[in-house]
Amino acid sequence: MKLSVPIFSLQLYCNPCLHWLAVPAMILLVAAAAPPSILNRETLRRAVRQLRELYCLEFVLCANREEHDFRAAFEHLERQGLLTSTGPGSSSDSDRRVSIVAGKEETAAIYLSVLGPFLCTYLQVTNVLLDTFRNQRKPFTEKDYLAEVQQYVEQLLLRQDRNVHPYCLSLDSISLALHSLVALGGITKSKRDEGGYASRISVISVSGWPMWK
């Protein structure tokens, strides 16, 4: 069941190649966002692992293939001339600096577009959780959460704000974002006395997810 659900979800993608581009896109996302002075291969690996954990319900990512997927994606990006790793030939991963090759930013952006809709969705989900439900300081149902996020996204789209995408209206992705945050400990889920479930924001802030820790 753990594998059958994401594999079935894969069939819903408009582009079935999306799965194969996910990990290379995650690597480029970290390389583009991290300060070059602190990004080495080991830091990159840890950050990509965190992204895999966050998006494990969106993409078909098997935990026991994490190291293989990372190595294969990294080597693919090096062969494509998008990523460079500098340091002594025999140096450890913590000594090898990683960066996107100068002049290749536009090509890297094509890979990053794979993650764009998901990044926007999870960003807006987090905004709603922090701005609306955390302030209520009481449990909320998933039904209320789905309606609130969709309404919030609709207003952003009408205003043509940044960091929003039509995919952010997808109930599937909005729901998966909530369940992912529950799995990571950012949200706690408890059964209510009258039946059904409610989720409440835990003391572990979803905004405090330590990408560079």
Automatic annotation (TrEMBL):
Protein name: GPAT/DHAPAT C-terminal domain-containing protein
Keyword Transmembrane: yes
Domain GPAT/DHAPAT C-terminal, first and last residues per copy: 8-189
Annotated keywords: Membrane, Transmembrane, Transmembrane helix
PANTHER family in the cross-refs: DIHYDROXYACETONE PHOSPHATE ACYLTRANSFERASE (PTHR12563:SF17), GLYCEROL-3-PHOSPHATE ACYLTRANSFERASE (PTHR12563)
InterPro entries: GPAT/DHAPAT, GPAT/DHAPAT_C
Ligase among keywords: no
GO molecular function terms attached to this record: glycerol-3-phosphate O-acyltransferase activity; glycerone-phosphate O-acyltransferase activity
GO cellular component terms attached to this protein's record: mitochondrial membrane; peroxisomal membrane
Superkingdom of source: Eukaryota
Residue intervals passing through the bilayer: 20-39
One Pfam family recorded for the sequence: GPAT_C
GO terms for biological process, alphabetical: ether lipid biosynthetic process; fatty acid metabolic process; phospholipid biosynthetic process; triglyceride biosynthetic process
